[in-house]
Write a structure and sequence with these properties.
The complex is a heterodimer. Chain A is mainly beta. Chain A is built from no helices and 11 strands. In chain A, strands 2, 4, 5, 6, 9, 10 and 11 form a 7-stranded mixed beta sheet that branches. In chain A, strands 1-3-8-7 form a 4-stranded antiparallel beta sheet, with no helix packed on it. Chain B is mainly β. Classes of the chains: A mainly beta, B mainly beta.
């Protein structure tokens, strides 16, 4: 069974650019959540996708957007990058939206905005 | 809104010492509570969880009890090992939707 994978591992962008991060969920998992983890801080919830629809959103501006595909893999898109967007971006998948089902986290994508 | 507060680290202990990492939360209703661990160079892993008041979660010698009266979920281990060195995160889910609110994390360093 393959775990949650994310690509790329590292990424460097300049302010104002756009970026797309990718996540492949664990087999059979229909729910993907994205988190932003700034250096030395805890992860912050960005949004969640369930069966290709956005199911919930944290306190992030609209320039953070996402997609979920029929195979339940997911993308996080960030437009008009700002320096404060530099962080580790984590995705997590689970069997459903219930907290009784464990979330499995990927290794993350390290984004640096210069 | 929901929030989680953890004791600031780093916490430095000698091998076989007793560990406590404090965690308190603010939330309406009855959240589920979690401890996650992040080992160096690895992703977040669920360590243990509790879904209702007075439940005790336990795993790998770690345990935490959901105390609604004190809104706390402190992590304890009786005898730490060097391999327990990692960053520990307390988290809650307040609407049973797997949308977690995390604390700031506590770095644990165990010396031989």
């Amino acid at each position: 069974e393959t775990g949650v994978t994310q690509s790329p591992t590292h990424l460097i962008k300049t302010r104002g650019q756009q970026v797309t991060l990718r996540c492949s969920s664990q087999s059979g998992h229909n729910t993907v959540s994205w988190y932003q983890q700034a250096l030395g801080q805890g992860p912050q919830f960005i949004f969640q996708y369930y069966r290709e629809e956005e199911n919930g959103r944290g306190n992030f501006p609209p320039r953070f957007s996402g997609l979920q595909f029929p195979n339940y893999s997911s993308e996080l898109n960030v437009n008009a990058l700002e320096l404060d967007d530099s962080a580790l971006y984590l995705c997590a998948s689970s069997l459903s939206t219930s907290s009784y089902n464990e979330q499995f986290f990927g290794p993350g994508t390290r984004l640096t905005v210069l | 809104g929901n929030s989680v507060t953890q004791m600031e680290g780093p916490v430095t202990l000698s091998e076989e010492a007793f560990l406590t990492i404090n965690c308190t939360y603010t939330a309406t209703g009855y959240p589920s509570l979690f401890w996650y661990v992040q080992y160096p160079g690895e992703g977040l892993q669920l360590l243990l969880k509790a879904t209702k008041a007075d439940d005790k979660g336990s795993n790998k010698g770690f345990e935490a009890t959901y105390r609604k009266e004190t809104t706390s979920f402190h992590l304890e281990k009786g005898s730490v090992q060097v391999s327990d060195s990692a960053v520990y995160f307390c988290a809650l889910d307040n609407n049973a939707g797997n949308m977690l609110t995390f604390g700031g994390g506590t770095r644990l360093m165990v010396k031989p």
